[in-house]
Amino acid sequence: MNLHEQLGALEMGVDQLIQAVVAPRAENIPETSAENAAQQAPVANHVSSAVSSVSQTQDVAPEAAAVAIEAAAAPEAAPAPGEEPGAKLQPTLEINRPAQNEITMTIGGQTVALRAEQIGQLIEELSNARASMTPEPPPGIPPGWRFVSTKNPVMAVQKQSNGDRLLVMRHTGHGWVPFTFSPDMVIQMYMMLTKG
After folding, report:
1. 61-105: per-residue pLDDT in tens?
2. Residue environment code for 104-117, b if the CB has 16+ CB neighbours within 10 A, otherwise e
3. I want to staple 160 with a disulfide (CB 3.0 to 4.6 A). Which of 74, 88, 164, 187 is the partner?
4. Which residues, 6 or more positions from 180, have their beta carbon under 8 angstroms from its beta carbon?
């Protein structure tokens, strides 16, 4: 299976997961497409957060990762009228790390093995999607947040026609991460970095 087929299978699995969680809740409720997107965003956020945190973590036990992702990806849905609780099985997302340079993802019984470059593409796609979703990430650093920092990252800077600066930094887990700064923000950042 080539990279595009694997990503397609993964996208299909995530779409199925979102539909399985969101559709039962919305069965008898008329809604606009904006309301539908608002309902799907938290589920996709759980999945993308879980995928990102597992792909960045070096020493997570595969069983612990699978349990954490299942809990994040399949929040409990209220049973439909006339249906017994637990009667409907929801598809789950399981992530395992069988080797240093490989992660396997299983959604609804379909398993895909991803290597480093494929994980990078997945992170990029999820990041691009997450950037347009609401709610936005929290404005402050959440307590207990786990991360991998990159010391002295490779950087590239480009001046924009309006005076802004594009700064692109290479993170070991996220890859190339772009930021645009207005001239005022460049001065504030310089002051913050040279303070103390």
Report:
1. 434 444 444 444 444 455 555 556 555 678 899 999 999 999 999
2. bbbbeeeebebeee
3. 164
4. 160, 164, 165, 166, 167
Name the β-bridge partners of 139: none
Q: Which helix (H) or strand (E) holds 106?
A: strand 102-107
Q: The pTM is what?
A: 0.51
pLDDT digits (tens, 9 = 90+) for 144-169: 999 999 999 999 999 999 999 999 99
125 or 47, greater pLDDT: 125
Q: Please give the order of strands across the beta sheet that includes 155-159.
A: 155-159, 165-171, 175-181
Q: Which helix (H) or strand (E) holds 170?
A: strand 165-171
Element (H, E) at 111: strand 110-115
Domain ranges of the chain: 3-131, 155-194
In 3D space, the residue among 85, 43, 50 whose CA is nearest the CA of residue 65 turns out to be 50
